[in-house]
Amino acid sequence: MKKLLLIPLIASAIASYAEIDYTKGVFIVNEDWYGHQNSTVNYLIPDDPEGNYWEYRVIQKENPGVELGCTNQFGAIWHDRFYFIAKQEKDPGASVTGGRITVADAKTMKVLYQNALIDPTGAQCDGRGFLGINRHKGYISSSNGVWIFDLDTFTIKGKIKGTDNPNAGDDKPNTDPTGSLYFGQSGSMVMASGKVFLAHQQAGIIVIDPVEDSVITTIDMGMVTEGAGIGSVVTAKDGSVWASVAKDTKGTGATLPCLVRVDPVSLSSEVVSLEQGVFAPSNSWYAWTPDTFCASAQTNTLYWSGGSNSWFTGKHVYKFDVDSRTATKIIDLDADGEKWKIYGCSMRVHPVTDELYISLYREFSIPTYLTRRYDSNGNRLNDYNMISNYWFPSIPVFPQTVSHDTGIDGIFSQDTDCTGTVYDLHGHIIMKDVEFGKWEDMGSGIYIWRSPFRSHKILIP
């Protein structure tokens, strides 16, 4: 009789377990507790009617015996796969070896692939970020350059020349922040007008042609002031590229009170000063994170956190209107009186609801965290308390709602019988008076237009 009673209970538990829908909530990628365990991913269901908001450690839950690597700072969902990039493959205190690269099915969280190495030679190379280029190719940024990752075969196809760390080569371990790999890193990447814009610690903004996998040009942050560096890059809704500014290239975390705007078509740039009293976006090359600098997909707006000591005093959140060039403080955790602080880079804006999700903590020595949800103007919507653990959260990641093949540089619009104009995906003109018909046919209306200097992947409707 007891055995018969156990059957429906087990069936009920299995059904409940299988009902986790990983396509509607919010993922929080965690560094987790360095020196003790590998990184983790928690899944937040923000509108659960019964208040069962959290599923903890979903990689381990869906893949028994499998874990992420050590200090996994970055995750991105691209064409129904979740790409996780860790600094190292295994935490010193962990019993399981994960990977610097982990790929999972974004709908089931089942791991499809792991690799301990980014550089196939085994040379020092810690993971930083990931950017999907098209269905077949992605870029992985690292402590030593940007690497081309084949998404069909899960193989590294080489490093993009010109993105290297000029300081690489000493014998210090990857975990030593005084090592040379921490002074010429490649960080965040965005796509705009068919080009990739990379934040490089020493070079500034490196512009990459994703068709040829080659560097087009470099935009030096010295335009701000001599010796200035970059924090990270984002793309605004209007297609413009924006960079936060570091005081220097040494990784001190110090900031300068301005942003840099880049036109993604002409590649012209300008320095946009912030109003007095506005803290600039925090940056952290010294222990690299993706930063809180982020952009709305619904309005022409940027967001960031900042404080008097950059990364360690993130209590203020600013909303920046790209059109008016004005910043407004919308969140002040000091004024709340609850003694919360924003942990590192853990803030992003939801691409559909335009709501902010932010991870909060009190002190590094206290394993108490919560995730707070705000509307786009900084009004608190809900708090999601968490079980006690040293989560050290990194970025929120939102399930992909629309797939965009950013490998397409532009769309051809025929003007005459022989020529036309090529527009990028934001409606900006890439090329005028382009001769029709002399392109390499890739099939399905896709063509490659080549010149001695540049190639463009064009859709002809």
Largest sheet: 6 strands, mixed
| Strands in their spatial order, largest beta sheet | 31-30-29-34-33-32
Oligomer: single chain
Give the overall shape.
globular
* Helix count, DSSP H or I runs of 4 or more residues: 3
The termini sit apart by: 67 Å
User: Helical content, roughly?
Assistant: under 10%
Q: Radius of gyration in whole Å, from Cα?
A: 22 Å
Class computed from helices, strands and strand pairing: mainly beta
In total, the number of strands is 34
Percent strand equals: 35-45%
**Uncertain regions spanning at least 5 consecutive residues:** 1-17, 402-406
Mean pLDDT: 88
Task: Summarize this entry quickly.
The chain is mainly β and 461 residues long. The chain has helices spanning 2-18, 58-62, 333-336, and strands at 26-30, 40-44, 54-55, 70-78, 81-88, 101-105, 111-115, 127-132, 137-142, 145-150, 155-159, 186-192, 195-200, 204-209, 214-219, 229-235, 241-246, 255-262, 269-273, 294-295, 301-306, 316-321, 326-332, 341-349, 356-361, 369-374, 380-385, 393-397, 410-414, 419-423, 429-435, 440-443, 446-450, 455-459. The protein is 6% helix and 43% strand.
